[in-house]
Write a structure and sequence with these properties.
There is one protein chain. The protein has 13 helices and 19 strands. The chain has about 425 residues and is α/β, with parallel strands linked by helices. It has 2 domains: about 240 residues, NAD(P)-binding Rossmann-like Domain (Rossmann fold); about 140 residues, Ubiquitin-like (UB roll) (Roll), CATH 3.10.20. A 7-stranded parallel sheet has the order 3-2-1-4-5-6-7, with helices on both faces. Strands 14-15-10-9-8-17-16 form a 7-stranded mixed sheet. The longest helix is centred in the first third of the chain and has 29 residues. The protein is elongated and about 80 Å long. The protein starts with 7 loop residues before the first strand and ends in a 17-residue tail after the last strand.
């Protein structure tokens, strides 16, 4: 006998991603499933997929930001299948703008409506039947943003997911003696359509390291198939491989910022010019007399693989030398095997004018790595291009390599955001 035979489950956000995977898995274990969401076509596709596999399912359109539609969804499930034994609150919505300074009230209310108000209304609507039967399981998909707020999740999303975690804690504390189980699952990055709303949409390489919808669905299945005497109160899930998210954070920090704001890129450029006038120099006992007449240290924005890093550097005869601190910030270190980063070591030819106690010559580094280098000494910017292998792969596939660059407003754009579309790129130089 299948583990959920005779039970009825409601899965919100069931048309794609985690919701679709969860609905299919629950149905495979014998549950009759109601899939709900905003768009009817994908919901009907999931319901049809379940029925083709021999299960029973129904699709119901519901805008869960509206409490009345959440209540109507619970009534529909009860009328269609007679009861609700399992509720999976999975529907989610995030704001495009993430920074608390730039989020509008309308965006805030939309995120709160779907992620919090809808969960409250739907949970409240299914509770009477569960209490009457003395059993029921409510699983709510929150987020690690509830635990670690920041720009990746954004202010509205993180606040809503923290609130819904607290709400499930309340259900658990007050109704466990009635046989009601309440679980909060808090996944980190999952490769679902909600990522398409990110200020910097992850590319295929980034998505490959993330958890997949089926991974979270397996966690939901575990929670609902345990003996009724056992409850998993909270579960935190993360990808095994942690990816560099500095570019994502940089993009999120600027999106929504009014043009001409004091913290805008133009303001940052003025600040860099001010720093150029500062009389700070490196203090190294090994400095040569030649180095002592070079320009003072100032900060440069270095784009390495699309990742912007602020690094201290010094201009010497029209060339750029990175400080030891900058080399460390970029993840490089000089070892006996050569120049090393992330387990990769590039041999340094004997006599190469690469490294001194004062740091590393950026031009020599780029040449050693066979990566093109673009410098704008006036604006304090440098860009390391793709490696020879990446360039060769692009020529072989006739597909441009992914890269990330800021626009005039400082917002980062990745070529991967437009994959599958025709893109017209215009490059120009202000000089």
């Amino acid at each position: 006998m299948r583990r959920l035979e005779g039970q009825v489950a409601v899965v919100t956000g069931g048309g794609s991603g985690i919701g679709r995977a969860t609905a299919v898995m629950l149905a495979a274990e014998g549950a009759r499933v109601v899939v709900a969401g905003r768009r009817m076509a994908p919901l009907e596709a999931v319901a049809a997929e379940i029925e083709r596999a021999g299960g029973k399912a129904a699709a119901r359109r519901a805008d869960l930001s509206k409490a009345a539609e959440a209540v109507a969804l619970a009534r529909f499930a009860q009328e269609r299948f007679g009861r609700v034994d399992i509720l999976v609150n999975n529907a989610g919505h995030s704001s495009r703008v993430r920074h608390i300074r730039w989020v509008g009230l309308e965006e805030w209310e939309q995120v709160m409506g779907v992620n919090l108000t809808g969960v409250f209304a739907l949970t409240q609507a299914v509770l009477p039947g569960m209490i009457e039967r003395g059993a029921g399981t409510i699983v709510t998909v929150s987020s690690v943003a509830a635990l670690r707020p920041g720009l990746i999740g954004g202010a509205p999303y993180g606040a809503a997911k923290a609130a819904v975690r607290n709400l499930m804690g309340h259900v658990h504390a007050t109704l466990r003696d009635k046989g009601i189980r309440a679980t909060t699952i808090m996944p980190a990055e999952v490769d679902t359509p909600i990522l398409d709303n990110r200020p910097l949409v992850p590319d295929a390489r980034a998505r490959a390291t993330m958890m997949q919808p089926e991974d979270v669905a397996q966690a939901v299945l575990l929670c609902v198939t345990l003996p009724q005497r056992t409850v998993i109160e909270e579960m935190v899930m993360s990808p095994t491989i942690a990816r560099d998210m500095s570019a994502d954070i940089a993009a999120a920090s600027r999106l929504g910022e009014p043009s001409g704001h004091g913290d805008s890129p133009s303001g940052a450029r003025r600040a860099r010019r001010s720093r150029r006038r500062a009389e700070r120099t490196w203090r190294s006992p090994e400095r040569s007399e030649e180095a002592s007449v070079s320009e003072p240290e100032r900060n440069f924005t270095l784009l390495d693989g699309g990742r912007p890093v602020e690094v201290p550097a010094r201009v010497e005869g029209g060339a750029l030398r990175l400080s030891p601190q900058a080399v460390e910030a970029l993840g490089w270190r000089l070892e006996p095997e050569g120049l090393c980063r992330e387990g990769l070591c590039v041999p340094v030819p004997a006599g190469a004018a690469l490294a001194t106690p004062d740091g590393i010559a950026l031009e020599a580094l780029a040449a050693l790595l066979d990566r093109p280098l673009a410098l704008d000494l006036e604006e304090g910017a440098a860009y390391l291009g793709a490696s020879a292998a990446d360039r060769a792969g692009a020529l072989a596939s006739l597909e441009a390599p992914d890269f990330t660059l800021p626009d005039l407003h400082g917002r980062l754009h990745s070529l991967a955001e437009h994959r599958g579309k025709k893109v017209f790129l215009v490059a120009y130089a202000s000089w």
